[in-house]
Amino acid sequence: MDHAGIATQSKVEDVLYKSTGQTRHDLGREKFLEKIWEWKEEYASLFRKQWAKVGLALDYSKERFTLDDEANKAVQKVFIDLYNKGYIYKDVKAVSWDVKLQTAISNIEVNNEPTTQLMYYIKYKVQETNEDLIVATVRTETLLSDVAIVYNPKDKKYLKYKGMHVIHPLTKKVLPIIADEYVDPNFGTGLMKLSAHAEADIDIIKKLGLEINESISKDGLINWPNSEFHGLERFEARKKIGEFLKERIY
């Protein structure tokens, strides 16, 4: 039996809160783990009864659960072997993060669904020429972590800006205008703002040796103390920042 960690934790937390009004933080780690084991035993027993009803004759002396001691030892050995071979390492990466469970989520546990979102077109003033470059984005809440504006080197209309800089509409920081082939010249205006809240962005930031600025906390709140948007929930901040820029003709 597989322990299905994230799904099980989410279910037990939901049951716990509905029945007692408590969270796992109220219980503490050890007490919460006890609740999870109780839930596991209840539903494992139900599974066995269901298997019996469909006619399965199983040797339960050979049953294994992914959190049993033997299974844990096997998993630990595999991870140690992979680490020793250099396949496991520490790095800065973008991950799918659950603000409720406070944990990273595997890509296979993420359900991607198409959504309709508002596209914002934002002006970045070119420092050297005083022109406006227009960047299209749906995620205005990530603006505070911008470190550069990027164009595709094959996009001729932006080649003249090579080596120039823009003034950020919110932070007023001076950011470089750089080229990278990742940018799709046919999306939006062909320009991409580079921030630390997407996998491709972080890869480009690391490749170019730029600074990684995170402006959203693990709770999904804007974390930028010197900003009027500090502490706002990320989706609320998306709207507020859009309104702020619109009022100032950005």
UniProtKB/TrEMBL annotation:
GO cellular component, one term: cytosol
Pfam families: tRNA-synt_1, tRNA-synt_1_2
EC number(s) reported in the record: 6.1.1.9
Protein name: valine--tRNA ligase
GO biological process terms, semicolon-separated: valyl-tRNA aminoacylation
Domain Leucyl-tRNA synthetase editing: 161-218
Gene Ontology MF, one: ATP binding
Enzyme class: ligase
Entries under InterPro entries matching the protein: aa-tRNA-synth_Ia (IPR002300), Leu_tRNA-synth_edit (IPR025709), Rossmann-like_a/b/a_fold (IPR014729), Val/Leu/Ile-tRNA-synth_edit (IPR009008), Valyl-tRNA_ligase (IPR002303)
